[in-house]
TrEMBL record:
Protein name: Cation:proton antiporter
Ribosomal protein recorded as keyword: no
Compartment annotation: Cell membrane; Membrane
Every NADH:quinone oxidoreductase/Mrp antiporter transmembrane domain range: 114-374
Functional description taken from the UniProt entry: NDH-1 shuttles electrons from NAD(P)H, via FMN and iron-sulfur (Fe-S) centers, to quinones in the respiratory chain. The immediate electron acceptor for the enzyme in this species is believed to be plastoquinone. Couples the redox reaction to proton translocation (for every two electrons transferred, four hydrogen ions are translocated across the cytoplasmic membrane), and thus conserves the redox energy in a proton gradient.
Keyword line: Cell membrane, Membrane, Oxidoreductase, Transmembrane, Transmembrane helix
Transmembrane residue ranges: 6-22, 29-48, 68-87, 94-111, 117-137, 149-168, 188-209, 221-241, 247-265, 272-296, 329-347, 359-381, 401-420, 432-450, 462-479
Keyword Oxidoreductase: yes
Mode of membrane association: Multi-pass membrane protein
Organism: Trichocoleus desertorum GB2-A4
InterPro entries (UniProt xref): ComplexI-like_HydComp (IPR052175), ND/Mrp_TM (IPR001750)
Length: 480
């Protein structure tokens, strides 16, 4: 079992470097790397009990592979596989596919770490791989966006590393359990690093610009999976330690409301999707014990939407409302939008019901408002005009695009069986009421409203300042 797990961890990195030696086989090798993760995650789902590995003593490395991690690993595998399908017929070089696979491997490593220092190493490797993919077009804009991401990420991880050292100083161990009884400043520093890395609440406002300005396949990877590498450790902290659970849930609710507020008023397609990613990360943290299923659903939806956004004739909703989309593309948009809104027969329905059932009483009203905001946001896609366009007017939808859609959207139908107990009359009526109310509000109010929200907190110099303010809040919450 140990040999199998270690082989699975090392396989994407080994294949990633092999791609440099065999560039003609880059696509096939990358696909083999992600399919291995699909197989391993299925095997992990079928395992009778969680797997715990300790490879070294107090300095780490400790690994934990449980059902919660299985959902995230499967999400990573499916999203990366879909991106490889999408890019199969493109002119992207072997370098792109090698970095995609190395990013995939580093996300896998971050998901299974159960000690602070191994997680730090995995997240740093992840940052470098993501930076190289963001800057892949080699334009001035992409290089600036990539450097901005890398700089903010490194500052966050510096805070995290100092916190990890303080935990070790207190307990002579880097294990996650060391947070119990750790100094308040250690908890605050570690959480600040992870909140920023994952794009949560105001310290994660680097995310909208980074995700919206990256190429569509990279946006799909970042939004579908990369940010969740910072989410899972926080969910684990909440499950391990009762005193940390309220902090995680608080940031979950705050993030869900902040992200969806911006998403409702945003008129740019990719920025709306990016802000909504912020909101959906909040749903995962609001009920961390069931966050794995929500992460799977969101990863499939958001990856498909970012890939579809790359085929739209414009990023502006105003422009899209004045021209017709090709109907097959519109149908793909609608399926993903229905799922994330919580429509029955798609896994978003079960994920939302399961999350709502595991909220604490003080969270319920706020999260229902966030769900209503989601319905309003994705009505923008559902009510776009559409028709079957002539061949000369159609977007270029190559077989790789449809293979990615079959995998991602088909996954939404298949994952629907994970929580089939959700299908009761009450559970069905409530989400449908929320969705229809959201559609009415969109058509009656928000479709006509033009409100440009300030972007001052997204500016580079203010992102660092916001991290300082977040640290003060976290320190106060850890002491409370």
């Amino acid at each position: 079992m140990t040999a199998l797990t270690l082989s699975w961890i090392g396989f994407p990195f080994a294949v990633g470097f092999l791609i440099y030696l065999l560039p003609r086989l880059s696509r096939s090798l990358a696909l083999a790397g992600t399919l291995a993760s699909v197989a391993y995650s299925i095997w992990l789902f079928l395992a009778s009990e969680p797997i715990t590995l300790r490879l070294l003593d107090n300095f780490g490395v400790s690994l934990l592979l449980d059902p919660l991690a299985s959902f995230f690993i499967l999400t990573n595998a499916l999203v990366t596989t879909a991106v490889i399908f999408y890019c199969w017929q493109s002119d992207r070089s072997a370098f792109f596919f090698a970095q995609t696979l190395i990013l995939h491997g580093s996300v896998n490593a971050a998901l299974i770490c159960s000690d602070l220092i191994s997680l730090y190493v995995a997240l740093e490797v992840l940052s470098i791989a993501a930076f190289l993919l963001i800057t892949y077009p080699r334009t001035d804009r992409s290089i600036w966006v990539g450097l901005r991401y890398l700089f903010i990420s490194n500052i966050a991880m510096l805070f995290y590393l100092v916190g990890a050292v303080l935990v070790y100083k207190a307990h002579h161990s880097f294990d996650f359990e060391g947070l119990r009884g750790a100094p308040y400043e250690a908890i605050a520093l570690i959480f600040l690093g992870l909140l920023t890395k994952a794009g949560v609440f105001v310290s994660g406002l680097w995310l909208p610009l980074t995700h919206s300005e990256s190429e569509s396949p990279v946006s799909a990877l970042m939004s579908g999976m990369v940010v969740k590498a910072g989410i899972l450790p926080m969910a684990r902290f909440a499950l391990f330690l009762e005193e940390i659970d309220p902090i995680v849930r608080f940031f979950g609710v705050g993030t869900a409301l902040l992200g969806v507020f911006y998403a409702v008023f945003e008129k740019d397609v990719k920025r709306m999707l990016a802000f909504h990613t912020v909101s959906q990360l909040g749903f995962i943290l609001a009920a961390p014990e069931v966050g794995g299923f929500y992460a799977l659903t969101h990863g499939l939806v958001k990856a498909s939407l970012f890939l579809q956004a790359g085929k739209l004739p414009s990023r502006s909703f105003k422009d899209l409302n004045q021209r017709s989309l090709h109907t097959p593309l519109w149908i793909a948009l609608v399926i993903a939008s229905f799922s994330i809104s919580g429509f029955p027969l798609l896994s978003g329905f079960g994920a939302k019901v399961l999350t709502m059932k595991n909220l604490l009483p003080w969270q319920v009203i706020a999260m229902n408002i966030a769900a209503l905001g989601t319905s309003i946001s994705f009505a923008k896609f559902i009510f776009l005009p559409h028709k079957n366009l002539n061949e000369s007017e159609r977007p270029s939808l190559q077989p790789g695009f449809w293979a990615a859609m079959v995998l991602l959207l088909g996954g939404l139908f298949a994952a629907n069986v994970v929580y089939y107990e959700a299908y009761t009359f009450t559970n069905i009526v409530k989400p449908l009421g929320t969705i229809f109310l959201g559609w009415i509000l969109y058509l009656a109010i928000f479709r006509q409203v033009v409100l440009k929200l300030p972007r001052v907190l997204e500016e580079f110099e203010h992102l660092v300042g916001v991290m300082g303010l977040s640290l003060v809040v976290l320190f106060w919450m850890a002491m409370a």
